[in-house]
Amino acid sequence: MNALVLVFSIVLVAIGATLVMDLWTYLLKRLGVATLSYAMVGRWAGHLFKGRWRHAAIGQAAPVGGELYWGWAIHYGTGLMFAMVLVIFAGEGWLRAPTLWPALLFGVVSVLVPLCVVQPAFGAGYFASRTPAPLRACLRSLATHGVFGFGLFLSALALAEVRGFA
């Protein structure tokens, strides 16, 4: 697979997987489950550019211009980064013949980023320890990242099918 096709494939898999995750989040919202507003991701990034990494509570930090748009861009950029890392570890052959377990395992392991980086930076503590229900928050994050991993697999499988690899 040439470099341009590889990059394009990773981008398509990332977009597909992130969309699957977004559909899951939409379903949770419809069921009345509180989910992350990507505006808070954009707000955090806006403050990060001003030199502030950590917040006591990101929701109480001053809003930044375009925070919702920045948040969504960062969300999809993170999906792209994660898809790229998966392909680096699983190999580009995985894109030709995707299997569930590497993608699902990667999705589950990727939950360490929000639990150990994002949540502490937002003021929620490591593993959501400063939230009213840390275990529930961690399990919700784990499920969401598991869905992302499943989305990586589904997207790669669909792409392989379209390209005639499957």
Automatic annotation (TrEMBL):
InterPro entries: DUF2938
Keywords carried by this UniProt record: Membrane, Transmembrane, Transmembrane helix
Membrane-spanning intervals of the chain: 6-24, 69-91, 103-122, 142-160
UniProt superkingdom: Bacteria
Claim: Membrane is one of the keywords in the record: yes
Protein name listed in UniProt: DUF2938 domain-containing protein
Source organism (scientific name): Pseudomonas xantholysinigenes
Classification lineage: Bacteria, Pseudomonadati, Pseudomonadota, Gammaproteobacteria, Pseudomonadales
